[in-house]
C-alpha cells in the first residue's frame, strides 16, 4: 500500500452503539434499514415452526379446524348458544381465524427475546425485529386456514357481501393488537421469567372474553358493550363475521373503540420495549 493510499481516510459509515437513556425514540428508520434481516427472521420462524413435524404446515389448518369441531359440539349443539342465524360451525370458525393468529402471535412473540438470547449477546440489530417476526410469521398460517373457510362458505352456501373489502383493515388491526401485546410481554419476560407461565392463562382467559363462541348480541346494554369493546379482539371478531358472513351485527362503535385500544397497545408497547431494551443483553 502506498503512502498516499495509507493516508486517505476510509469513507465508510461508522455507527456508535451505546445505551439509551430515559424514554428513547422508536427509531423506526433503523428498523427499515434492517428490513432484509426482518424478512430473514420471519422466514426462519416459519421454517422452524414446522421443522421435523409429520404433518408440517397442515397444523395451521388442523388447529382451528379441530377447535371449531369441539366448540360446535359443546357450545353449538349442547349449550345451544345462538349464532346470529349462521350455522354454528362456520360462525365459530370465522372467529377462530383472527383469534388463532392473535393468540399464536402473543405466545411466540412474548418468548421471542428469551429465545433469541444468543443473537442479542453477539450482534447488533433492532431488537424489535424479534417480536415483529414472531407475530408476522403467523400470516402464512392465516392464509392456509382461510382456504378452509372458503370451502365451508361454499358448503353452507354463505356468500360474502361487499363488506368483504374491510377484511384487510381488520387483519391489520389483528396484527397491531397482537404485536402491541407481544412487545409488552416480550420486554417483561426478559426481566421477569414467570411471565411465560402467565401467558397461557392470559390467552385462555382472553379467549372467553372475546366473542368467539358467542355473539356480541347477547350483550344488550350499550354501556357494557362499550366496556366490552375495550378488548381489541372484540371488534376484530365481529368485523370478520360481518365482512365474511354478512351478519346483521355491524361492528359500528365497537370497531372504533377496539381499534383505538389496539393502536394504544402498539404505541405504548413499542415505547416500553425501547426503554427496556438497553438491559436485554445483560439480563437475558
What would you note in describing this structure?
By secondary structure, the protein is mainly α. 68% of the residues lie in helices and 0% in strands. The chain is built from 15 helices and no strands. The chain has helices at 3-7, 28-33, 35-49, 59-78, 88-110, 112-115, 117-122, 129-136, 138-155, 167-191, 195-208, 222-228, 232-245, 253-276, 280-283. The protein is globular and about 55 Å long. The protein starts with a helix and ends with a helix.
Labels describing this entry:
284 residues, mainly alpha, 15 helices, globular, disordered N terminus
Question: Terminal Cα separation, in Å?
Answer: 44 Å
* Oligomer type: single chain
Shape: globular
Largest sheet: none
Q: Helical proportion?
A: 55-70%
Hey, roughly how much beta strand do the residues contain? under 5%
Return residue spans where pLDDT drops below 50 for at least 5 consecutive residues.
Answer: 1-10
The total of helices stands at 15
Overall SS class: mainly alpha
Radius of gyration (Å): 22 Å
State the order of secondary-structure elements, H for helix, E for strand: HHHHHHHHHHHHHHH
Question: What's the total count of β strands?
Answer: 0
Could you tell me the mean pLDDT? 84
